[in-house]
Amino acid sequence: MQLPSPDARSNTQHKSKRFPWMAVIIISGTLIVILAFFVVTLLILNSQGTTQGINTLTILSIVVGFVIGVLSLLISFLQWHHPKGASASEKLTPASFLQTLPPIDREHTQSPGFFKDLRQGHKKNIALTSTNQENRHFDWGEAPHVDRLYGRNRELTTLKQWLVDDRCRLVAILGMGGIGKTGLAATVVDQIKEHYDYVFWRSLYNAPPLESILQECIQLVSAQTVSALPTGLDHQITLLLEYFQAYRCLLILDNVESILQGRSLAGHYREGYEGYSWLIQRIGESKHQSCLLITSREKPPEVALLEGETLATRSLHLGGLKLADGLGILKDKGLQGTQDNWEVLFTHYGGNPLALKLVAQVIREVFGSTITAFLQDGELFFRDVRDVLEQQMRRLSIREEEIVYWLAIERESIMLSDLQEDIVHPMPKGELQESREFSQEATTDRNKCNRCHFAPCNYGISDRSLCRQGERGDQGGEFGAL
């Protein structure tokens, strides 16, 4: 049992001694006032008579009550305007606060869960504060929630190095449709977001106008202090860059290929979206502490112009998954088969994560999760997979489609000079190189002395490509002979 301190005992004794004297004074004063009022009443009644005396006493009572009321209001006003500070004994100190707490069972404090509950409550308050702060500084837009990222450990490490350590200003994640660009971007941003003051994610899949992107982004980084953008695209981008210089911001633009012109050589923007080119270029060239991260099936020309291995602009090209990672997708879907069947199925789709997920769904629903039955009786390139591949093919120009067609025929790595000889229509080497840059995911292996090859996942479109080439031949081209 804890004894009271000496100061506490002296204060208690002082209060106990002071209380009787105050009570005696108050009681005595009250009796004196009553006695005085009684004497005054008798004198007035004796001198003025009963009727006149009562009237006089009534007036006197009203005057006295009014004076007392005024004095009470005045005292209340003075107390409100000049509040009395708490005395030293009345101030709340940690010791006095602890003394006001109810007694705690010593056995309960020694239990493992006691302090754990206290820590959890403290962490909960911190979590609520952190959540409110995150909502103020992060605008995730259409960013997907990635439950699991298969493989890509090397790519994640590279992107973290570029974004955090090297502080790159412009980074592009490139690859064909379904290869996992958006999922990789969402994962790396979620892992490094604490290194940035602001994170702003927008998808360009529906080709939003640049003005709306700038408006929403500036609203975020300015903490809602900018009500209207300046006139002129150049001034708006300049304003954004001023915030990029003052704060560390991460701007993510997903599906950039949606604002690029299809059926033409790479790098041509759709009409009305040329402003994005100026935005990308200025972010890549200007001096600031922020970064623009983009995902695209095509490499924007500004990235190609500014990038370098030691420069502040870099691009990462995604290929198919490794065998072990691709098999992880199929096994998580509950498929059954021999090791050879697993590898054959993986090879057919070139390690494309989306294609593997689509075919796994078909095998589950139609073939009872048995890979062998699918390989024997199934259509390898069914509609959903074919749609993914043809979305990529529809972006090719006629020249680029011709290159892809011949690479599909070769099936093996081929030198650039040999590819030029295979192509029926004469094509200058410079034009061949420019076209090859567009479809490098399917056609280029830079580690093999500039040899070209076609990704296995794209073999399924060679028949349709052949049909289209034949149709053009019937209309007067040499492809009719094919």
Describe the structure.
With 482 residues, the protein is α/β, with parallel strands linked by helices. Among the domains are: 138-317, Rossmann fold (3-Layer(aba) Sandwich); 323-380, no CATH class; 389-481, Arc Repressor Mutant, subunit A (Orthogonal Bundle), CATH 1.10.10. It has helices at residues 6-48, 50-81, 94-100, 106-109, 112-137, 153-165, 181-192, 210-221, 233-246, 275-285, 301-306, 323-332, 339-348, 353-366, 371-377, 383-393, 398-410, 416-422, 429-438, 440-443, 462-474; strands at 138-139, 170-174, 198-203, 249-254, 291-296, 313-317, 414-415, 444-445, 451-452. It has a 6-stranded parallel beta sheet with strand order 1-3-4-5-2-6, with helices on both faces. A 3-stranded antiparallel beta sheet has the order 7-9-8. Helix 10 links the parallel strand 4 and strand 5 (291-296). It is elongated and about 140 Å long.
